[in-house]
Amino acid sequence: MKFKNAIKTIMGLAICFGATLTTHAQDSTSMAEKPNEVTSFNKIRLNLLGLGYEREQKIGRLTTFYIGAGVESSLIYRTESELRPIVNSDGSLDYAFDEKSTTEFKLYPSFNTGLRHYFNFERRIKKGKNTVNNAAGYVGFDVLAIFPTQKNEVDYQINMGPRWGFQTHVGKKINFGLDLGPDVTINSEEVNVGLGGKLGFSYLF
């Protein structure tokens, strides 16, 4: 399950969009309620690479536990190259270079859980910024399990790692969120280290 490098560029552009969106939301809600602790929510999440349900449950004044399920998408790009020897009629030897590329888009069922600790509620309140719907920065730990549906693929994949992120309130029941962090990726064939994260919108209910 290797994502094309272009996804990193898309996420970079989206981070800039998120920062602009955050500033706009803060300016337009300067008179809104500013709670000093987190709230529990049910969420429908539409991310850059997936769609799912999440329950974020308050377990401390500024700490939440979350659990969810959904589908994750994968853009898989493969390139195969082969150098073939060719024997000519006069007995001389030439070589032919063949290259074949394939691109696949797939959907996989997924399970997600983790912890978030929001660290800047008080600072945001002092600055007059909005904290509705847990609109603040956080650190945490995330575990994502992906289960491919075809027997000829890797039978599972687990991504886990620390996270830094933020949520911002952009509507009465809508949040925009981003989190990033190093990931350890484990499946039945190998263990890798990479970059993981989520980017998208949540509908709260």
Account of the protein in words:
The chain has 205 residues and is mainly beta. It has a domain at 42-74 and 106-204. Helices cover 14% and strands 59% of the residues. The protein has 2 helices and 8 strands. It has helices at 6-28, 121-126; strands at 41-47, 50-58, 63-87, 93-118, 137-146, 157-171, 174-187, 191-204. Strands 1-2-3-4-5-6-7-8 form an 8-stranded antiparallel barrel. A hairpin with a 4-residue loop joins strand 2 and strand 3. The longest helix is centred in the N-terminal third of the chain and has 23 residues, at 6-28. The two termini are 32 Å apart. Mean pLDDT is 81; it is low at 1-32. Residues 1-25 form the signal peptide. Keywords: Signal. This is Outer membrane protein beta-barrel domain-containing protein.
SSE order: HEEEEHEEEE
* Low-pLDDT runs: 1-32
Summed over residues and divided by their number, the pLDDT gives a mean of 81
Q: Strand order within the widest sheet?
A: 1-2-3-4-5-6-7-8
Strand content: over 45%
Cα-based radius of gyration, to the nearest Å:
22 Å
Percentage of residues in helical conformation: 10-25%
Tell me the structural class: mainly beta
Sheet with most strands: 8 strands, antiparallel, barrel
Tally the helices: what do you get? 2
Terminus-to-terminus distance:
32 Å
Name the assembly state. Answer: single chain
The dominant shape is elongated
Number of strands: 8
Protein name: Outer membrane protein beta-barrel domain-containing protein
Keywords: Signal
Signal peptide: 1-25
Which features characterize this protein?
205 residues, 2 helices, mainly beta, eight-stranded antiparallel β-barrel, disordered N terminus, elongated, Outer membrane protein beta-barrel domain-containing protein, signal, single chain
